[in-house]
Design a protein that fits this description.
Alpha/beta hydrolase; globular; AB_hydrolase_fold; eight-stranded mixed β-sheet; 2 domains; alpha/beta; Rossmann fold; 35% helix; membrane; transmembrane helix
Length: 313
Amino acid sequence: MNKLLRIIRKTLVFGFVLLLLLGITGYVYLYKLPKGPEVTTPTPILVGKDNFVMYAYHESKRKSIRVWTYKPENWKSGDKIVFVMHGGGRNADDYLEAWVKAAEDNNLLIVAPAFESKFAKYTTNDYQEGNLFTFFGTKNPKQEWAFTVIENIFDHVKSVNDITNSTYDIFGHSAGGQFVHRMIMLMPDARIETAIAANAGFYTFPNNTIRYPYGISHTNSNTDLQIAYQKRLIILLGELDNDPSLGTFRTTDLAMQQGGHRLERGSNFYEANAQLSSSNNWTFNWEIDTVKNVGHDYRNMSKVAIKWLEENP
């Protein structure tokens, strides 16, 4: 019996040490070693399709990010800049392609960041949840939030291309829709004019008793909602996006409490925020739009998004 207990203790100790080593190795690999493609020399954005690679953070060279762009020939400083946020497939170049015709027809500079990750199938904290927390649950500084990266890209585009624009618009679909609505809620000081969150899989509700990303607990952003409601956010929903089998659909208990499918979740999210703003007598500049005969389709949702940019006050 004593021999068996010694074997069990040794096994448990060995298992603990192994898990500890794996955790440390994973942390160093994910958050300490340099990540991303090789940074390119800053040059003005070319007409048509182009891309560049820059450091994601101002204070660190640990992470780089590729940014796809499309510029019409007649686009000039002062004309609209639209950030397009990809879905969970992290296919920024495909999303860029979906906006080419709209860019030409409406003279838009399209900027599509690629939040690439080898572990995209297993983790969402680094992109659609804003990188507020590491995979291990520890907090990241605000300067390393994914939302901050968008502001950094805007600064880069302005400085390299001698652009005077003070604001930009942003559209995101599916995982990108998650990204956009959370950016408005958690970083309302961002220089966004109009934000469009389309067909998000699940939402961050304005509930400070539910932990992020399902609620706003532990984000230190509770007092920012009044400011967030002053921003122009469009919750864009596909009428036919009521099939949970489409795309990657989260089915955790907290996610299912938001609704049985994306259409229901988006409607419930909008109503929860509208009710909170009304009960506090706050200004509320968010709107909701349900698109007829469209499901979980980023191409068709992108086409509809244009009307909201055209109506930008």
